[in-house]
Specification:
Length: 749
Amino acid sequence: MCWPKMEAFNFIKRVSIQMQIVESKAPIRLPTDEYTNKQWFFIDMNCEHGDNYLSNVENKYFAHPYRWIIADATEKVIKNLSFLPNSNIILANWDNNSERIILKQVYKVAIGMPLIYEDFGLWTKKDGLIDLRTTRILSRRRRNLQGYQLKATTVFMNEGSENHTDLDDTQHKNIDMASKVCLLLAKHWVESVNATMVTDVQRTWGYKDPKTGQFSGMVGRLQMKEADIGDQKYFSHPYRWIMVHAKYEAIQNLPFLPDSNVLIVNQDIDSKDYILKQVYRISMESSLIYEEFGVWNATHGLVDYRKNRILSRRRRNLQNHNLVAATVFMQEGSENYPDLDDYQHNTVDTVSKLSLLITKHWIESVNATMRFDVHRTWGYKDPKSGIFSGMSGQLQKKEADIGGTIIFITKERIGIMEYLSMQIPTYTAFILRPPNLSNVSNIYYLPFSGIVWICSILLVILCTLVIALTMKFQFLPDKTTENMGISDYIMFAIASSCQMGSEYLTKIVSTRISLFFFFVALLFIYNSFTANIVALLQSTTKSFRSISDLNNPAIEIGVHDTVFNRHYFKIETEPTRKQLYESKIAPNAPNVFMNISYGISRLREGMFAFHTETSPAYTAIERTFYENEKCGLIEIKFLKITGTWSAIQKKSPYKEILKVNMMKIREHGIQLRERARVYRNKPKCDSNGKNFGSVRLIDCKAVFLILAYGFLASIVIFCAEKFFQSKLNEIFVQKVKLCETTLVESHDD
C-alpha cells in the first residue's frame, strides 16, 4: 500500500530534522550540492513508478551527505544501486503481524558485491524509534571491507627499487626511503580494514599539464580514478595473467569478466602434470566459470584442450545475464505501443523501433536478457560540468551496458563510449520537389543558346536590310512601298519574326523571293522555339544541388522538430551552413521547426525544402503524394556526420562478444530483413513524362512583363508626343501671330 503523504511526513519527522518527500506523480527532483548534510529523501516503492524514480538517481546522491529512507524495497530493486560504504540508506518495511516498522541500513563494500544489511531499529506509534545500532558512527560499523582489493598508486623514483625483496625487512633504507615507509604504513592501514592491496608504481608524484589540465604520475592516477576502488583495468584485455596454485578463496571476488584472459595453473599430485584452466565470470554477481585449457608436462609439453582459441566465441553464452540498454524515443509514449514487434506505427520514432528490433536479435544471439531505460534525447555535453545528458550520459556513468538506439559519432562522444558497428544506414537531409524552370528562370530565353539568339537577330536584321534595298532601288515604281520609312521596316521585321506578316505587298519579283526565304527561315526558328517552350513548361530545374542553393530567397525552409536537429543546426560552423541557419532558420525558429506531417504537406506544395530523417519522410510521401509528384525528389545533406553506429559502454567486458555477434547478424541478412520491413527508400517514379500540368500564371511571367513594359513604354512615348506636339502648336501659333502683326504693320505703312 502506498503511504499517504502526511503519514510519511509524520514518520520521517520522528527520524530526521529536514526532509523531502518524493512523489510518484511527478518526475523526481534531485538535490543540489548546496543541500546540508541533514537532507533526507523518502521514497515509497509501493507508489506508482517508485522503482523508476530510484533508478534515475545519480550515484553521487546515494553518497554522503545525502540520506535516504526507502519504504518496502525488495532486494531485486536495490541490488544494482550504488549503496557504497559512505551511503546512508535506511530500508523501512511494515510488519503486519506486530504493527511496527522494521528499519535496516544497507550497503555494499563495492559495486558487484552482495548487499550487507545492518539492524537500525524498530518504530511503533506508541514507543516511537527504538535504536538497535551498536554505534551510530557509520565508519566504525563498516570498517570491515571483507578482503576487498584496493589499488594503491605509489611513487618509486629509482628504477627497480620497487622490486627489492626486502621492502618489508626495512633494508636499503637509503633508496626511496619515504616511499618504502609509506608503503609499510599503507599495508598496516589496509590490513586494519580487512582489505587487500595491489600497487601501481609511478616515477613521479604528478604535476598539472597547463594545456590539458591533466595531472601526470600518482596524482594523475587518482584524478582519472585508475587507483580507485573496484578498478578492473588490468584484468581486462589486453592484459593476460598466469596464476600458479591460486585458491578459490583468493580469486572468488576478483573481476574476471568475459574479456579477461586469466590462466590458473595447478599441479596434479599423482601425475605431477600441470593442469591449466581459464577462469572468468559473466558479471560480478555471478559465480566463476572454469574452462579447460590444457595440460603441461616435461615430456609432451603443452597439450591444448580448447575447442576454439578465440575467447569471444567460447564465452558468447552470457547465461541469461541482464544487460541494461539505454534507448531513445523522442515522442512521448511511443515506447509503450504494444505492437513494437509487429511493425506498426513505423512512422513514429522509426530509428528507435528499428534499433530495438535489431538489438533484440543481437542480445538473443548471446543468450542474454535486456532491460530498457528510455530517454528523450541521445545526450549532449554540458559545457560546465562535462557530463552528458540522455543516453550518452548513461553510458558515460556506466549505468547502461549498451546503447539500444543508434547514435551519431561526434568528437565529444568518442571519449565516453565505444562504437561497434554501423548498424542502420540512415541519414537526414533536406528533401524538396524540384521547382519548375519558370520559378527560377526565364523559360522564354532557354530554348536557344546565346549564340543562336545572336545569329537569329542578325538574320532578321540582314534579311530586313536586303528587302529594304530591293524595295528602295527597284526599277519599276511601286506606290504601296515607295513611302516606307525606317520605323515601317522595323515593324516589318518584328511582325515577320512573330509570323504576323505585313500590310505592305510588293510586286517586285526579287523582293518577293527575299520575303519567301526570309519567312521560311523564320518558320523553322519559330517551330523550334515553340517546341522547346512546350517541353520547358513541364521541366524542373536541376540547379538545386547544394546548401548554397537553398539560400535562394524563393525557397522556404522547414526542419523536423527533433532534439538532434535543434542541437546540430545551432552549433554548425561551416560558413555556408551557418549562413543558412542564421538567415532562414534562427530568425523564425518557432515556425521553421515543425512536425513531419505538416512538413511533408508543405513539401508537396513546392518551393519548400524540409530537413528530416529520410525513411519516415518517404513513408509519408508514399502515402500522400500522387505518382507524378514523387518524381525527381532532391536530397541535400546538411549534417556533416558519418553514419549512425551502435554504441557500448567504454571498456565494456562484453565488447568483443557483442561486436562479433553484431557482425554475424549483418552477414546473415537479419539486419537487412528488419530494415526492409521498417524503412522506406526513395520512391520510384513510375509516371515520369506521362502527366502534364496546366500552364500557370508564373509560367507566363515573362510574357506579362514584356506586355507591361510595352504598355508602359507606349504610354511614356504617347505623353512625350503630346508634350512635343503642344510645344510645336505653341510655336506655330506664335509664328502665325508674328506674321499677322508684321502684315498689319506693313499695311498701315
